[in-house]
Recover the amino acids of this structure.
């Protein structure tokens, strides 16, 4: 392993900046091979600072000249080492002028200023601005910016930056310029510029106040027919934020720019949002229903950052969830409101919880576990995690659960009243919520400071004589790296009780004079163990606990199979109705997995199909699914979610020792069994859920397509000619990418003779559509018959490039993270391939490499034979030369914890 250990940065060591910045003036002479940057910074000493030393950060820059208050500084006047430039003994007021050069066309990290397809783009969050110029690059240094861009007019006709365009014109020698001014103070991570050959769709929009603003979506030529949905999503986001939170767009224009080479999904730079093309470009030919929904959510997310992240930003990067968790919650609420129905909101809620359980719960249980507000990091890019984002959003949602929707709005209003234009902390947000709601939320702070997923064990005792029910809740939280013991959390637990006919019962807690009329009560669990006593309970009920997933916890309650089936049929809470089915399916899948393991250990396996077929198989699950499938009062989207089995990753999380091959065999057996049991109902659902006519991504139509296509995915398990013909027909005749891709996936996972031709035909038809070819790679990487050789072959395809993050994710990440059985092949070849790719990416794009490195961070959870091969692969990466901070942190923690 490398011997130079990167330093660890601790939250407890936060110190105020020694100098604050008032204004920044920047001039860019843009050339791909050598860009010159002239920066003038107006600074003043911070009264809260500890000394009179100016501290600036810079990476991969050539310092041409440095002037302080007009005086050229010599090398003896400052210190430059390790990417930090220090100027000691500076006066109280400073005008600092810096000239630097950078080489954007060599910047493969895609951080700072870089070139993609001949155009200039920037990505400055978290610490990319220091690759543009020397600067106090930290989020608590906020300033107003004026930016002058100069470039060749023919090569770069469009010049964009933050804020408002105040001047543009021509220069000698075929060059031109544009001057931009951002009237609002912002930290350097929100700086952006774009220069290139782009075209835009633009619309004018009148805000509630009557002010008219210009909205633009910029793309490469040839993509204008794919921008309408992004524009509509932006308009809907602006309107929603005005109506829901009273927040108005504060600039005269708002711009979205799409780029194909991008490490993230999108970036909320003030007024100039830069997006991965994946979250902008869409039309029925190239985008699925999921793509349309994701574009709406991500456009909303980045726009909502204009207030929750830009107008009020983070004091330091440990507070990242202050903006990200809050804004994820806002985009979740926005997407749910755009659907507009109670059932649609439930579907959205289920989707969000599935992401949390499949990605964040494992993170909480692994070596990279960290609190929503981390205490330390080596590389901040490694903390753009599902814990900070998705769990952070759940923490924000709990405020709304505890305070109510109106109370939460009051808290938001107070937050902006107190902190507009400031860089603040998670504690400041919590204080605003507590003060607005007149609540003591001191204990709630533990959601920010403690890592791990709490467990809530529930026990119920019903006394028929006294007509009372006692619900006892007990909380605990497993040890995580650096945190062995946890204090009790403040956990809202939403509860309902169902009578024998499936009706909600009125709820009255002991001591209340009368029932409030509510059939769902939010109980506040603040101690290690608490008992809540309900009175006037006429009969023994079936409890519905943690309705709406009211807290990000694991609920431990031993429902019987009959109770789960009852909840699936009757619970008025749609989330818990779905949850009952997931619990029932998980119980079956774990039993089948154990049977596979036992048969394999016995050494007398004729076929796993025979072994599993001999298991006691009652019909509770298939009967419950049949009832749901036939219930046309339920939205098609909800029925599709109920029919979708827990993923192999979810099942793995329920096991002490993960056996990916046994899980895969068991899940596939259950899919075939359900396909046989429900064949006629699945076929009826498939035929009933057609969406003839012009394509629309609305909730009703997309729900029907989802149900139709999950039915098809089950039916192809039967390997019947009739079904394979249906899949081929859908592939040939589909008028939208959702149905086309679903049919191609069904064929790929079947024995159909024409599947190779279908894959080739798909590529030929869409080879010029990069986002569609990403789907083509993913489909093959996650196919059931794929192995590491499949992926190695695809990696040599002319369309594959490891340098493009989207393409790398579509093939390498999809195989390593989305095809567990194939990746965890017993011969260890999947791990050897993983190590090769991490090392290769480390040399070009450390941020993407570190995310791939996370694929093995929980190696200790697997079977001993797999553990040894994983450890060898991790050590191979650790021993490689020039390991980046990003990758080194992940590998070190994976091997150490």
């Amino acid at each position: 392993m490398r011997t130079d250990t990167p330093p660890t940065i601790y939250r407890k060591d936060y110190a105020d900046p020694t100098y604050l910045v008032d204004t920044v003036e920047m001039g860019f002479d843009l050339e791909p091979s050598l860009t010159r940057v002239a920066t003038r910074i107006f600074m003043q000493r911070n009264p809260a600072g500890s000394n009179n030393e100016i501290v600036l950060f810079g990476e991969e820059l050539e310092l041409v000249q440095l002037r302080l208050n007009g005086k050229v500084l010599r090398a003896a006047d400052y210190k430059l080492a390790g990417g930090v430039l220090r100027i000691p003994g500076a006066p109280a007021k400073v005008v600092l002028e810096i000239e630097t050069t950078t080489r954007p066309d060599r910047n493969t990290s895609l951080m700072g200023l870089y070139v993609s397809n001949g155009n200039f783009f920037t990505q400055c969050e978290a610490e990319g601005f220091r690759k543009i110029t020397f600067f106090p690059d930290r989020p608590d240094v906020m300033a107003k910016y004026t930016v002058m861009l100069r470039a060749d007019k023919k090569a770069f006709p469009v010049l964009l930056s933050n804020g408002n365009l105040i001047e543009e014109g021509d220069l000698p020698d075929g060059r031109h310029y544009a001057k931009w001014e951002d009237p609002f103070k912002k930290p350097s991570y929100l700086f952006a510029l774009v220069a290139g050959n782009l075209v835009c769709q633009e619309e004018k929009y009148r805000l509630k106040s009557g002010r008219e603003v210009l909205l633009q979506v910029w793309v490469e030529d040839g993509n204008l027919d794919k921008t309408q949905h992004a524009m509509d999503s932006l308009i809907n986001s602006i309107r929603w934020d005005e109506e829901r939170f009273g927040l108005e767009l504060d600039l005269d224009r708002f711009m979205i720019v799409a780029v194909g080479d991008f490490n993230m999904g999108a970036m909320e730079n003030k007024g100039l949002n830069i997006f991965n093309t994946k979250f902008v470009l869409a039309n029925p030919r190239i985008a699925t229903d999921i793509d349309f929904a994701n574009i709406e959510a991500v456009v909303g997310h980045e726009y909502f950052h204009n207030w929750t992240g830009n107008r009020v930003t983070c004091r330091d990067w440990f507070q990242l969830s202050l903006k990200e968790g809050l804004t994820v919650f806002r985009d979740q609420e926005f997407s749910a409101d755009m659907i507009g129905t109670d059932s649609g909101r439930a579907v959205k809620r289920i989707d969000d919880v599935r992401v949390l359980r499949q990605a964040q719960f494992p993170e909480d249980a692994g070596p990279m576990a960290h609190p929503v507000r981390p205490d330390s990091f080596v590389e901040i890019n490694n903390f753009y995690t599902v814990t900070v984002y998705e769990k952070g959003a759940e923490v924000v949602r709990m405020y709304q659960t505890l305070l109510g929707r109106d109370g939460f709005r009051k808290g938001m209003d107070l937050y902006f009243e107190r902190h507009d234009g400031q860089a603040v902390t998670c504690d400041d947000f919590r204080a605003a919520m507590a003060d607005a709601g007149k609540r003591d939320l001191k204990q709630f702070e533990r959601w920010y400071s403690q890592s791990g997923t709490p467990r809530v064990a529930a026990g119920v005792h019903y006394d028929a004589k006294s007509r009372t029910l006692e619900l006892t809740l007990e909380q605990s939280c497993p040890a995580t790296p650096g945190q062995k013991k946890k204090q009790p959390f403040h956990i809202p637990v939403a509860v309902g009780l169902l009578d024998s006919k499936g009706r909600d019962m009125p709820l009255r807690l002991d001591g209340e004079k009368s029932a409030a009329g509510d059939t769902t009560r939010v109980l506040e669990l603040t101690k290690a163990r608490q008992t809540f006593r309900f009175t006037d309970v006429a009969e023994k009920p079936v409890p519905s606990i943690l309705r709406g997933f009211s807290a990000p916890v694991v609920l431990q309650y031993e429902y019987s199979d009959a109770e789960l089936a009852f909840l699936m049929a009757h619970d008025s809470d749609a989330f818990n109705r779905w949850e009952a089915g997931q619990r029932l399916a998980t119980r079956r899948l774990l039993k089948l997995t154990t049977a596979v393991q036992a048969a394999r250990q016995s050494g007398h396996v004729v076929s796993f199909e025979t072994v599993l077929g001999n298991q006691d198989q009652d019909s509770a699950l298939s009967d419950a699914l049949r009832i749901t499938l036939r219930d046309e009062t339920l939205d098609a989207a909800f029925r599709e979610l109920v029919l979708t089995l827990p993923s192999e990753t979810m099942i793995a999380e329920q096991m002490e020792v993960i056996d990916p091959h046994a899980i895969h065999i068991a899940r596939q057996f259950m899919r075939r069994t359900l396909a046989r049991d429900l064949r006629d109902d699945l076929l009826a659902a498939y035929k009933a859920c057609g969406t003839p006519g012009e394509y629309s991504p609305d909730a009703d139509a997309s729900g029907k397509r989802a149900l139709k296509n999950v039915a098809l995915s089950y039916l192809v398990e039967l390997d019947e000619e009739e079904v394979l013909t249906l899949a081929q027909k859908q592939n040939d005749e589909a008028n939208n990418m959702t149905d086309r891709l679903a049919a191609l996936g069904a064929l790929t996972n079947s024995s159909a003779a024409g599947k190779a031709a279908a894959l080739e035909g798909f590529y030929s038809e869409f080879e010029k559509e990069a986002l569609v070819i990403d789907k083509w790679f993913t489909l093959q990487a996650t196919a059931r018959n794929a192995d590491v050789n499949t992926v190695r072959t695809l990696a040599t395809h002319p369309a594959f490039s490891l340098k493009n993050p989207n393409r790398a994710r579509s093939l390498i990440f999809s195989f390593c993270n989305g095809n567990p059985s194939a990746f965890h092949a017993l011969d260890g070849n999947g791990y050897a391939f993983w190590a090769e790719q991490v090392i290769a990416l480390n040399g070009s794009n450390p941020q993407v490499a570190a995310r791939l490195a996370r694929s093995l961070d929980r190696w200790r959870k697997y079977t001993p034979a797999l553990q040894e091969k994983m450890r060898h692969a991790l050590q191979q990466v650790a021993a490689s030369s020039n390991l980046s901070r990003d990758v080194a942190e992940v590998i070190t923690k994976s091997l150490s914890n």
Remarks:
- The chain has three domains: 9-196, 312-556, 574-896.
- The chain is about 40% helix and 20% strand.
